[in-house]
Amino acid sequence: KQEVTQIPAALSVPEGENLVLNCSFTDSAIYNLQWFRQDPGKGLTSLLLIQSSQREQTSGRLNASLDKSSGRSTLYIAASQPGDSATYLCAGSSNTGKLIFGQGTTLQVKP
Amino acid sequence: ETGVTQTPRHLVMGMTNKKSLKCEQHLGHNAMYWYKQSAKKPLELMFVYSLEERVENNSVPSRFSPECPNSSHLFLHLHTLQPEDSALYLCASSQERVGGYGYTFGSGTRLTVV
Asked: Is the backbone peptide bond immediately before B8 cis, with ω within 30 degrees of 0?
């Protein structure tokens, strides 16, 4: 059974810092790994999707990597801004298509 | 707005009421999902539909009844709910159920059961 864990649960950094959010999963037979952003009380916005055959994806200041052998994915945020404050969720997809979510990392970027 | 639209955005209902949540996607996706997000818990998958056929029911109580009349619309019918059912209900879609396609989520319906 796939389980997804995110560390840390919460993170507070000053504006401008580079930061890394971690995601680990128990089943290496993962189809893809998707990172989402959720603002308070809102839905999920997809940030990056890493397919099984890929190792990383980049979008602007965001870079996500996937290492299936170690069961880990990281989301790197460069030059953080107050607008990046949100909860970041990672989710892994099994070969049956089921998307399993971690509990999220709540990020606060202080001006 | 994302490609997945959910209505209403907020809903307050009594335990004896019957209400429905609606989800609509115009992305041409063939799979649709209902998720429940409670405070301090990871998102929980409730139902999966592929080509309008329910392919998964994740041990959800019968007071939640899904309906998928076509590949663009998904409903969640609610009746005799409990206060612990209060949560954010999220709809999502993907190109296909299997194959590693990414999910697109709606903005959710915030449900409060009183």
From this structure: yes
Inter-chain CB proximity B41 and A103 less than 8 Å: yes
pLDDT digits (tens, 9 = 90+) for B7-27: 999 999 999 899 999 999 999
Where is B51: in which H helix or E strand? none
Query: First CA to last CA across chain B, in angstroms?
Result: 29
**Of the candidates A84, A79, A86, A81, which has an alpha carbon nearest to the alpha carbon of residue A105?**
A86
- Which of B21, B27, B35, B31 lies closest to B4, judged by CA? B27
User: Could you identify the residue written with the tokens 């019957």?
Assistant: B18
Taking contacts as CB-CB distances below 8 angstroms, the residues of chain B near A104 are 42
pLDDT exceeds cutoff 90 at B89: yes
DSSP assignment, residue A35?
Answer: E
Helices (H) and strands (E) in chain B, counts: 0, 11
